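Try this one yourself first.
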């Protein structure tokens, strides 16, 4: 007879963290991981199965713990009591295994010539683990986190704003304990490092709209920069007031924070070995990033006359120019929390998502302005170098919306992609812009708080009766009134945004 991990935990009255800890220390055999049997009461795609003999082992482990044995001595005592370590599944498990060809095996120890550590992967972390963005919204989780910490939900909501990690922690079986609730709140206050007050945290937890805590020392992302690994203690009460001590590892990336709840008695060498492989970890995490609905501001910028410039320059100089533009703009995008998007050709697409300490739409506007200023310097540099009269322009379109965010990936590359009209309209605005202009939709500026919108100088250039150009401040116009859509081939593709109200961004007060 074989038992699921759920049946083992229920029969032995232990948590998943305790079960995983026993496995990691060799007190229990590794489970056979396979698809659930038909009719199994679980939504998990795969589940661990154990031989029935583990219940006797667990009973003996519990008895030894009550007798005061340390965990390091229990394995030796088990051997003396006739409970040898089970290296392989029983014959019944082998038969079950053979009948399922698409089985996903549990991780096995991989010997490193320089170390004896177990080489873990994201798929096989045997402890609760989940990732959040910098608004504490869940972007990835493993089965242990779902069942032990986050409330055993069936599915996460599609809208990212409904995925607050703290809210799920407090709804979980451990979070419902009053003492645990306070411990979890204090834990997240520690993570904020002066960024959030308790009231800020409760507002975020309650889902209060338009909550943006006033800046204090620095943002959460800046206070824990990319590459930081923090270890924090967390003590929670489990069944019958048993105390569970965790070492929580928080690994910071540009895309968010990965949390791993390691029982304090468990060895951390293999886990730290995993976290040292940062590029591998974040690439695998992003591949598992399910499509979500999210607020987003989109910036699309294209080099004006790129075909002509490519024709005029030797190939090596053209590539040098494009690489210089990309390399020079990269720190600007990072400064304003931009995320690379998928784009064909030599243009740029960047997404700006809600941040806990600043307005993502204003970030997109400030980024566009700084790009324009930087492009002028690059243009002058190449005019001097080539002794030409060409001016280099990045034409920029900005838009906002509530769209699906997903991932396109191959083995070594991951690209964020936003679906919907938001990005399409931003791209069309970039096509419409000329001379390094920045064009934005009315809806984008309409999402700015009044105080920030007052810092933006925007409007429409008109011609008066005598043909002179007049700038009408704080004004919008439809594309159809700004372009003769049938005059040129370039304008033909503007037909799908002909009725879109837009404006030109002239300047933003720093």
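Now uncover the answer:
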């Amino acid at each position: 007879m074989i038992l699921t991990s759920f049946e083992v935990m229920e029969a032995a009255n232990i948590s998943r963290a305790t079960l995983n800890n026993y496995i990691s220390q060799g007190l229990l055999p590794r489970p056979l991981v396979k698809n659930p049997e038909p009719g199994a009461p679980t939504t998990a795609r795969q589940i661990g199965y154990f031989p029935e003999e583990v219940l006797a082992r667990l009973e003996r482990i519990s008895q030894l713990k009550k007798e005061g044995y340390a965990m390091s001595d229990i394995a030796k005592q088990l051997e003396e009591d006739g409970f040898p370590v089970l290296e392989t599944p029983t014959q019944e498990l082998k038969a079950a295994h053979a009948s399922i060809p698409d089985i996903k095996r549990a991780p096995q120890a991989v010997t490193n010539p320089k170390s004896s550590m177990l080489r873990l992967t994201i798929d096989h972390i045997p402890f609760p683990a989940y990732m959040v963005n910098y608004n504490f919204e869940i972007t990835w989780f493993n089965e242990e986190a779902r069942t032990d910490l986050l409330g055993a939900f069936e599915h996460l909501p599609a809208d990212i704003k409904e995925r607050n990690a703290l809210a799920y922690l407090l709804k979980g079986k451990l979070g419902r304990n009053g003492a645990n609730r306070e411990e979890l709140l204090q834990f997240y206050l520690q993570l904020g490092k002066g960024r959030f007050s308790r009231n800020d945290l409760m507002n975020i937890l309650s889902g209060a709209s338009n909550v943006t805590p006033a800046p204090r020392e620095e943002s959460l992302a800046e206070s824990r920069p990319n590459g930081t690994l923090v270890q924090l203690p967390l003590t929670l009460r489990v069944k019958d007031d048993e105390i569970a001590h965790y070492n929580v590892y928080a690994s910071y990336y540009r895309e968010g924070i990965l949390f791993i709840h390691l029982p304090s008695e468990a060895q951390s060498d293999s886990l730290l070995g995993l976290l040292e492989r940062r590029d591998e970890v974040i690439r695998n995490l992003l591949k598992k990033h399910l499509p979500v609905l999210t607020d987003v501001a989109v910036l699309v910028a294209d080099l004006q006359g790129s075909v002509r410039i490519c024709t005029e320059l030797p190939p090596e100089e053209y590539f040098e120019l494009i690489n210089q533009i990309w390399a020079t703009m990269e720190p600007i995008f990072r400064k304003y929390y931009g995320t690379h998007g998928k784009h064909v050709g030599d243009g740029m697409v960047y997404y700006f998502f809600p941040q806990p300490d600043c307005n993502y739409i204003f970030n997109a506007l400030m980024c566009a302005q700084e790009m324009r200023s930087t492009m002028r310097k690059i243009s002058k540099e190449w005019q001097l170098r080539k002794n030409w009269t060409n001016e280099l322009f990045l034409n920029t379109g900005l838009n906002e919306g509530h769209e699906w965010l997903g991932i396109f990936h191959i083995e070594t590359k991951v690209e964020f992609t936003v679906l919907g009209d938001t990005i399409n309209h931003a791209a069309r605005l970039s096509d419409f812009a000329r001379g390094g202009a920045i064009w934005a939709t009315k809806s984008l500026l309409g999402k700015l708080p009044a105080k920030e919108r007052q810092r933006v100088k925007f409007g429409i250039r008109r011609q008066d009766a005598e043909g002179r150009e007049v700038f009408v401040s704080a004004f919008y116009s439809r594309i159809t009134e700004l372009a003769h859509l049938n005059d040129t081939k370039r304008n033909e593709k503007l037909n799908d945004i002909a009725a879109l109200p837009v404006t030109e961004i002239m300047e933003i007060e720093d």
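Discussion: The chain is about 35% helix and 25% strand. The chain has three domains: 2-98, 122-279, 292-508.
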